[in-house]
Specification:
six-stranded mixed β-sheet, two-stranded antiparallel ribbon, mainly beta, globular, Barwin-like endoglucanases, 102 residues, 1 helix
């Protein structure tokens, strides 16, 4: 769930570091963000946010497409010569982890 947005920022999605670690995401990593609410999709990069807050912020021009209160899917991709295991997090409306699957 997106908890806030700031159009007057140069861009990114801010994700708390505890959620980043649980999902195996990196600061600066490119991600695809899809709004489950509106269907809007965009690519941006991750900024680490304060752990334990549950605050997921959409910034910059992306804030015109996805706004606070929208449910989103955040997807990261990797290229590899060998198989890799994906990590999927399911969060509740307060962005607490309900389930982790690998």
């Amino acid at each position: 769930m997106v908890t806030g947005s700031d159009v007057d920022y140069e861009g990114s999605i801010e994700i708390p570091t505890d959620l980043m670690e649980a999902a195996d995401l990196w600061a600066g990593e490119k991600v695809l963000v899809a709004s489950i609410t509106t269907g809007a999709r965009l690519e941006t990069y991750i900024l680490p946010g304060k752990p334990g807050t549950g605050h997921i912020m959409i910034n910059g021009g992306a804030a015109h497409l996805i706004k606070a209160g929208e449910r989103v899917a955040i997807m990261a991709f990797a290229l590899s010569d060998s198989p890799i295991d994906s990590t999927n997090l399911l969060l509740d409306d307060q962005n607490n982890i309900i389930r982790v699957s690998r």
